[in-house]
Amino acid sequence: MRSWKIAAVGTAAVALATVAGLALFSGTGQAATAALGSNWYASAPYVMPEDNSPPDVAAVMDATGQKAFQLAFILDSGGCTPSWGGTSPISSDTAAGALINTVRSKGGDVSVSIGGYGGTKLGQNCGSPAATAAAYQQVISKYSLHAIDFDLEEPEYENDAAVNNELGAAQILQRNNSGLYVSVTMPGTTSGAGYFGTLLLDKSKTLGFTPDNFSIMPFDGGFNGATDQINALESFHGLLESHLGWSSATAYAHEGASLMNGRSDTGEFFRQADFQSVLNYATSHGLARFTFWAVNRDRQCSPPDNNGQTSGVCSSVTQNSWDFTKYSATFAGATPPTSGPSSSPTAPPPPTSAPPGGGCSAAAWSATTTYNGGAVVSYGSHQWTAKWWSYGDIPGGPAGVWADNGAC
Fold first, then answer.
1. Among residues 110, 122, 141, which one has the least CA distance to residue 76?
2. What is the pTM of this model?
3. Rounded distance, CA 186 to CA 347, Å?
4. Is 336 in contact with 330 (CB distance < 8 Å)?
5. Which pLDDT band, with edges at 50, 70 and 90, does 407 fall under?
6. Sheet harboring 402-407: ordered strands across?
7. What percent of the chain has pLDDT over 70?
């Protein structure tokens, strides 16, 4: 499971230049910004703003096209007090605020993640859903947030009262903050989610709480690459159907994948090809979220394999900087810049003889074009409309992305 401060290298100062038109962090509140589309919050990869050698997010945005990041983690520093990592109260924070302003100055935005693996969670100490929500509301108000992630892991994951506080708080925040994007992240197993994951789903149903997505982390549990991860996501899809009473389409539309790039905590390996395979699955099935832990690790170690160790500041696999972040940007619908043979997600090869568009008025489908839901193309003398985001999925193919509007 994701460690909230694996191989931490200490708090790092984040440089911040004055940006015209955007107030700098003042310690009293965060400059407001317009919300991005939910596709960006759904793609936001995790960043630790105060530990694990925080990356230059401006450079990451320029290199990848990514516009949103998931800042981690809010914990309790005592007495139901929200803080970064359990040590830096948000009331006196400057580092996270500086990073947020940098992202927003470039047209992006952030979500904030609570919990993670280890540490003391607010749900454990705040005493009630209302008190827990009040603590998180401080974070939302402080940073003018449009999105928040509940990363429910140990030690509260097996604590029914704590999980009740967290899910109840999420529901209250969802009601009190119009348009707030809420994701719930939990450990994954090769069978989707374990016993406590099913209890979490059952509790959500009892509360009548539906987040934008439930995401599993298919790593640190005996996974061997993308095939195992996709199988786990399919199993989790079944759990969403059976425990929440959802149709298959509704389950996919509320399901997410939260991956780990490179070498996992337990020594599994997830390379660029694995990310591409899971991305293809996520887009072809209409999953609601595709993210990973973490941008701090999205760079090559020295030596590249890190001598068989897992690091919080590099991936332990051969890569170009920010290779894995480009998959998140692609999920959001962006076309990442290219900077090398392994630095950009690639589409499946186009068919060797694509049927012509015939007399259709819509532009011909292209295997190298990114399409958003609602896009109209021609292919095989038929007109087609995209049901959701698509890249490289052939109209009429097994992915089911395109609705056939009939012959032109």
1. 122
2. 0.80
3. 29
4. yes
5. confident
6. 376-379, 382-386, 402-407
7. 85
Report, as residue numbers or ranges, the catalytic residues.
153
Helix axis angle, 160-176 relative to 129-143, nearest 10°? 50
Calculated CA dihedral for residues 86, 315, 234, 208, nearest 10 degrees: 20
CA distances in angstroms from 66 to 31, 244, 260, listed in the order given: 21, 32, 17
Lookup: tokens for 229: 């991860």
Q: At what angle do helices 129-143 and 95-105 cross, to 10 degrees?
A: 60
321-337, pLDDT tens digit by residue?
A: 999 999 999 999 999 99
8-state DSSP, 159: -
pLDDT at 2: 57
CB atoms within 10 A of CB 385: 17
pLDDT at residue 6, as a whole number: 45
Which range among 21-25, 64-68, 93-97, 215-219 shows the weakest confidence by mean pLDDT?
21-25
Report the C-alpha gap between 294 and 303 in whole angstroms.
19
Share of the chain above pLDDT 90, in %: 75
Encoded amino acid at 377, one letter: V
Q: For the chain, which domains are there? A: 38-332 (3.20.20.80), 346-408 (2.10.10.20)
Check if the beta carbon of residue 284 is closer than 8 Å to that of residue 227: no
- Residue 396 confidence (pLDDT): 77
In the numeric block, which tokens belong to residue 34? Answer: 């317009």
Comparing CA positions, the residue from 377, 372, 371, 373 lying closest to residue 358 is 377
